[in-house]
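Q: Could you predict the 3D structure of Lon protease?
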Amino acid sequence: MQINDTRLFPAEIPVIVEDELFLYPFMITPLFLSDDENIRALDLALQNETPVLVVTTKPQNDGNRDFDSVYDAGVVGNIMRKIPLPDGRVKILFQGTQKAKIIKKIDTSPLLALVDTLHIKRPSPVKTDALLTVLREKARELSTSSHYFTPDLLRTIEESVEAVRVCDLISSALRLKKQIAYSFFIEEDLEQRLLKLIDYIIEEIEANKLQKEIKNKVHSKIDKHNKEYFLKEQLKQIQAELGTDTSRDEEIQEYRKKLENKKKFMGEDAQKEIKKQIDKLGRMHPDSADANTIQSYLDWVLEVPFENIAKKKSSIAEVSKHLNTDHHGLEKPKERIEEYFALRELLELRGISEKVNNGAILCFAGPPGVGKTSLANSIAKALKRELVRIALGGLEDVNELRGHRRTYIGAMPGRIVQGLIEAKQMNPVVVLDEIDKVGRSYRGDPTAVLLEILDPEQNNKFRDYYLNFNIDLSKVVFIATANDVSMIPAPLRDRMEFIQLSSYTPQEKFEIAKKYLIPQELKKHGLKPSDVSISKDAINLIIAEYTRESGVRNLRRRIADILRKVAKNILLENKGKINVNTKNLKEFLEKKVFEIEQADKKDMVGQVNGLAWTSVGGDVLRIEAIRIQGKGSMQITGQLGDVMKESAQIAFSVAKVLIDNKKIKVPMTIVPKFNDDKRKLEPSDVYRRFDLHLHVPEGATPKDGPSAGITMVTAIASILTDIKVRHDVAMTGEITLSGRVLPIGGLKEKLIAAHKAEIKTALIPRKNYDRDLKDIPDDVKNDMKIIAVDTIEDVLKHALIK
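A: Sure. Here are the predicted structure tokens for Lon protease:
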């Protein structure tokens, strides 16, 4: 069959399937056939002396050789030579002549199809020449940036005048993907084929330019890294020869590594600042002063535990358990703490996490040794968080909290940031101890910084001057402690909720010593309960006569004193169990300290038991008055403050009014009568002809406060009327000029002090009786008669002996 004669088509010819190559007309190509179907198609073509159609398999072909898995167009050609190979394959030399497509499928074993040639639609010669010129130009341009075209192939493309052949030559050289090659191959409109091929070559040119640019950049970067590497290696060798330290680069790399590990946990401003300082250090000479400063900064800042946050959620059950385990009594403080953490737990359970720390800051207020810091420690254990204690007593420098600027010698982060580093957590329990003793000076006012630290609206962006970026303190549990709330500035008080811890009664101290202090101290001293026993009476005696405090700190010290001597006796004298009782207690403790002087055993004129509150608890304050012949003036001693001095003046005036109104009876026998005075004596002569001296003992101790008014009136009334005051009565309350008794504070501490002094009757203002009596311990109320008074007449009725 003459296959160049298109008039013989369509014709039935065998089909050979090729996997890899996409053939074009006028190509002489060796083909290796191993598939049985292909070999049978070859044999059929040779037997019938017919041409064959070579088609290509479609992409993602699974190995099938049927019509559905091959393209329906290919190259018709003849077999120039057939060579059987030893491995069973057949090598043929195939010469393509023209393009053809399958019109009809006839047989599948081998593939046999009705084939017809493609009919090319040609544009005008002028348009064809113009498109060919552009195609050749783009092919030349592509050849400069790629290896697709050999010089011989370019020459053939330039010399050929047949547009179809030029397209086939270029398509074969471009190594197109099967699907793209087929789309060009099957295109019967020559103009469209030329345009598509031009567009494809233009895309290839742009892609090659981009690849070349990327390669240049990559090579440049690689060259730069290689250059840096070789320079660094040379520098190391030079430093090794000079004997200098080469660990600096390793340190900088370590800083970068630490920053990378913490990067996702810190804010963007922190990342920028730390990275800037690391880069700055890398450019500096290691012996410069600034290098040491920056290195110290990086050592500090990369220790801040941005990545460590305690995950345990608030649990009211855990908090309650630890509070009850670690503390005896303190029911009200425990209840308020439980309420505080119940709120946090509820907010966490309901997913309102941003509100968790927006409550008030707790401040435990009370005398020393009553368990303020211990309560905070129990909270930290319940939350499974670290406890950080920051002592604020005497703090004057604002930079101690805020951090020093790095320009100063010896600069370091503030105590808050240092506390986070110490705790290795970003949300520990921080105890701000003795917040009432913060001072202020020319170095600033630390309370202003505390306002920001404790304000939930501000502390999520607390700025430490040393770090120079913001730190989030909103997850920290802040707990403050104070002895005297009145010493805390008002704006700072406004951010805190105060939980009052009062003085312990002797019975509470006994229970604490028995359940907590003695077992803890035995463990600290390496002793067992079988080595020593302290009797109940001995513990009570220690509490009554060997300690002077509201809390139990000194009680713990006295127990430790006893156990040290017990340990010594066990080692030196090999004694068995040692029993400590009231008889041998003086062998273990040196001297007694009478906490509160006991009430006098007899009634006296001008001497009254007053009740006072101090920063270490309550106290019984005896106020004394004497009369001296004079002109009605009054002298006040005892180092009293302005408030108590004013109370004394008011008390003197109230006493005068009582005498004038004959509310109290004045015996005229005590009033001196002058020889030239012929008139009858009047009650008012008693305060006109006597000078009074009012004294509050322990003159070395400063005293002040608005609660001694009724005590002073009673003392003045007693000395002016010569009526004795009951020795077993104590009182507290402020007085007005009209004689009304005003309420006071610190009632619990005052009544506990009265109880310790064996006072039998206490006179207190009516409002305190109605409002505060429920807070008084039962053993105090059971052993003492507490009477509410409204006016000074009520006070004198119970205090003066009729």
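Q: Anything worth pointing out?
A: The radius of gyration is 52 Å.
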